Amino acid sequence: MASGHVNRANRPNTWPLRPTPQSEDSPCQPGANGMDPALAAVESRASTAAKEDVMQVVRIGLDLAKYVFEVHGVDNHGKVVVRKRLRRDAVAGFFANLPACLVGMEASNGAHDWARVLTELGHQVRLISPQFVTPYVKSNKNDQNDAEAICEAVGRPSMRRTTEINRSAGGTGRPPHSPAPGRRPGQARQPDSRSAVRAWDCHCP
């Protein structure tokens, strides 16, 4: 046999492979949306597992902002089970679908209003001064890292918190023992003018 001759039996098959026709009952047939049923089943199981993880959340750090809020939640073992970015109009709906848990927020102007909303949904809310959250920020300061730091700080047993909002606040939207709107802290309640007149009449000879 010549050295340059190639046996046809040993020649590799270079013809393109034709697609194998599949029967109608084949499990690999694409679904109605063109997706492989096996791949769709895997994605469905992953989505179900993610929902189950979210339902195990016990502590959440909520970073408040003007338009977009950051959520960072962990379970009993400290494992991150939810890390989400929410628009303002979606915050109440998200927490309404969660089991009752501890929610931490930095004390700010709008924190008491959101604390009232989350308390009415059954959650326990704690407000923390921002100066106590700063040591728990791991890297560059941004909304996501702030939410993680709040979640870490609110879980510390010895953490000094500004106040704790619960249902005993009476749904007033402000913490217990706080001054009424329009009254400065430490400002005494002004007596009624009619009561003062009656008291003056009583002491007149």
Question: What does the model show?
Answer:
With 205 residues, this protein is of the alpha/beta class. It is built from six helices and six strands, in the order αβββαβαβααβα. The chain has helices spanning 37-54, 91-96, 111-120, 130-133, 143-154, 193-203, and strands at 59-63, 68-74, 80-87, 102-106, 124-128, 163-165. The protein is elongated and about 85 Å long. The protein starts with 36 loop residues before the first helix and ends with a helix. Residues 169-178 have low confidence and may be disordered.
In short:
Helix content is 30%, strand content 16%. With 205 residues, the chain is of the alpha/beta class. It has a six-stranded mixed beta sheet with strand order 3-2-1-4-5-6.
Topology, please?
Layout: H1 37-54, E1 59-63, E2 68-74, E3 80-87, H2 91-96, E4 102-106, H3 111-120, E5 124-128, H4 130-133, H5 143-154, E6 163-165, H6 193-203
Parallel strand pairs: 1-4, 4-5
Antiparallel strand pairs: 1-2, 2-3, 5-6
Describe the structure using short key phrases.
6-stranded mixed sheet, alpha/beta, 6 strands, 205 residues, single chain, 6 helices, 30% helix, elongated
- Structural class by sheet pairing and helices: alpha/beta
Strand content: 15-25%
What string gives the helices and strands in order?
A: HEEEHEHEHHEH
Count every beta strand, where a strand is a DSSP E run of 2 or more residues.
6
Distance N to C terminus: 144 Å
Helix content: 25-40%
Q: What would you report as the Rg, rounded to the nearest angstrom?
A: 31 Å
How do the strands line up in the largest sheet?
3-2-1-4-5-6
Shape: elongated
Number of helices: 6
Largest beta-sheet details: 6 strands, mixed
Q: Uncertain runs with pLDDT below 50, 5 residues or more?
A: 169-178
Mean pLDDT: 74
